[in-house]
Amino acid sequence: xxxxxxxxxxxxxxxxxxxxxxxxxxxxxxxxGNAGDWHRVHLGQMAQSAAGMLLLEATAVEDIGRITHGxxxxxxxxxxxxxxxxxxxxxxxxxxPIGVQLAHAGRKGSSARPWDGGGLIxxxxxxxxxxxxxxxxxxxxxxxxxxxxxxxLARIRQAFVRSxxxxxxxxxxxxxxxxxxxxxxxxxxxxxxxQRGDAYGGSAQARMRFPLEVFDAVRQAVPDSVPVGVRVSxxxxxxxxxxxxQTSAFALELxxxxxxxxxxxxxxxxxxxxxxxxxxxxxxxxQAVREACGLPTMTVGLITEPRQAEDIxxxxxxxxxxxxxxxxxxxxxxxHAAAALGASVxxxxxxxxxxxxxxxxxxxxxxxGQR
Length: 371
Fold this sequence. Notes:
β4, α2 (about 75-90) and β5 (about 100-105) form a beta-alpha-beta unit.
């Protein structure tokens, strides 16, 4: 029986050779939003992985939209030039499509890097005042963010558009909007973070208004050949917060607006969350959203074994499997999965000699000659 995990799938006009996605992974290693040597090496490894698509880490659309001072950005000419130069090198390492996750941190901005504690950095210590749907701090004891007014909403909407246009100019082939993990667009969706009294707050339909406006603006700003997908947090894991039913309704709206895929994660908007972490703990959420909206669906979260990933796709619980920590631990995960599942993958010819004797054929078109 042939592997479904290694079968092709189309996202809009973009064809992926298999259903393994390198999930966006923050590296906190940029300088003023600029990609550099770390990104060149990190992304080069991921480009050699033989996954179906590589999505770049959460990339800020304005400077105060960064999570940390080290977050990647695509809000300036310098950012565009730096990332373009990195991608020029990375594309020599592999032929898989590369996309970007565009994001705004909202009230979770101005944070220290995780290895420096991850806490809010105040303005007196070199941070900035984060913005949010409502002047509600992320955690008790933190300073409140600034509530966005109509001018701020317009600025951020246009910032997403400009960053998307920059992404297209440097050849990125897909765009994912980050509407998850407690960042700005998720904050608008969640009643825990959005307590506005205007047209952008209140009912679930009103709370999804701004994320949908951003999606529409980006979709209209890029060519039809560039699919636009969305990552969501299906549930806040907090009573009274966003739940899978509301997320499914949002996904249905996104489908009507031309969304190419839905990438289903969870949590991040509140420290009060209680997440039942375990192998594949978010797969049931992806399945519920998929069944409700019918969009091509990615699932993510403690998926570590090839057979586990294969079964998820074969049983129709998701269409694609996105890997993050597993790829950091083993950047060759798709190679090893192909060997385990009897599939083959395209790898750089410089590595053909490494094909194990007990996995002959796993490297497609491999042929070694020597005199």
